[in-house]
Amino acid sequence: MKPNEIDLAIGMEKYFFDWTEVKMNISRPEGFKVTEEIDDKSCESWKGLENGKYAVFLLTKKGRDHFSVMREINLNFRSKISYIGIKDANAVSSQLIYADARSFSNIPQFYEAEDGSFTMKFVGFANEKLPHTGNFFSITVETKSNDELQEMKQRILEISKEGYLPNFIGYQRFGTRRPISHVIGKLLLKREWEKAFKWIIGFPFLAENEKIRKVRSVFHSSRRDKVREFLEAFPSSSFYERNLLRNYVITGSYYEALKRSSLPLDIYIDAFQAYIFNRYLSRLMGEIKDKECVIKMPIYFSGCDDLCKELYEEEGIDRGMLTGVFKVKVRELQRKAFMKVRSVSFSEEKNRLIINFSLPRGSYATIFLRELSHTNPLMFT
Fold first, then answer.
1. What ranges do the domains of the chain cover?
2. Which residues form the TRUD domain (predicted)?
């Protein structure tokens, strides 16, 4: 079966199993739960020391993106909060975050966002970085018919028996409703500042909020001297777009506006590398026999194999472009070709399945769901 056009757009050109489509739906965020694993155990059961170098907190969030949560915490406590992993925004998630204990005059015991979208609870101290080994997922899937439900149960059993799935980099890295982060990353590497700016602000997608979609659409066809007008047109929830527009109004330079972006620009560079990795894995997936094989995507052409060079050249990236921009260092990507799927189980409720499984750190549950359903990713992201 040919993958969905969104899959193809982010480099996922093949499926592992030769299955037909099974339509399903996940009620987000409540139906998608992710819990960080520390040393192969739930972060919710982690117990800290009575004293130590780092103050550790349990962060539980619902339907909030990672960076806006980090920004709010940093502003409220004037401390640099560190994290081990970035969790899906459109989910209910639990993870540990930490900060230098000396940065607090009084360590906050509990904090809750005004809108109730996240809580932060102090759970103890640690003297070293925490061993993040993976994530546990509990996902509630709904189908339209009992036949589809039974088919899905059989597929879960097959996946469990196989034990591995392609370790594609998932939709979240590219943008689940607006999968263009890799395009912006490529434009940054090519030093095409104006195009990168306009891709971030313009280019609407149907899956977006209608108001934002309309603003993007008008901006996309507007003149450069109209930028100031769009600063007020975007709603306050579009924090990053407003920040970028404000930067341009102040500096009059696309380069300077991007350089001052409040959103880390490395997410775009990382997304482009993820896109190249996905395309590379799609081409070689059927030839890889060792499921523990690690794929390396060098940043120097001298270290690339023929396929790697071919993919970079197809994207218009030449030898001199894989260097840092805006002090963002382009790092060699090393990633296992396949992800090990652990602790798979499911329970049934009417036309719903509650699917439980664990994945290694850096692997995506949406890739599990993609393989399970072969359906439009907008149904499960």
1. 19-25+143-167+340-379, 33-133, 184-259
2. 164-381
DSSP SS3 for 353 = strand
Peptide bond into 264 cis (omega under 30): no
Q: Are 295 and 336 in contact (CB under 8 A)?
A: yes
Query: Out of 65, 88, 266, 270, which one is annotated catalytic?
Result: 88
Determine which helix (DSSP H) or strand (DSSP E) holds 335, and give its type and residue range: strand 333-336
Model pLDDT, residue 349: 86
pLDDT confidence of residue 325: 76
Residue whose entry in the numeric block shows the structure tokens 């590398």: 273
CATH match of 184-259 with 1.10.1510.30: yes
Q: What is the CA 367 to chain-centroid distance, rounded?
A: 12
Q: Is 115 labeled as catalytic in the residue annotation? A: no
Residue-wise burial string across 154-169, b where 16 or more C-beta atoms lie within 10 A, e elsewhere: ebbeebeeeeebbbbb
Question: Distance between CA 252 and CA 193 in Å, rounded?
Answer: 12
**pLDDT < 70 positions in the chain:** 223-225, 319-324
| Fold classification of 33-133 (topology level) | Alpha-Beta Plaits (3.30.70)
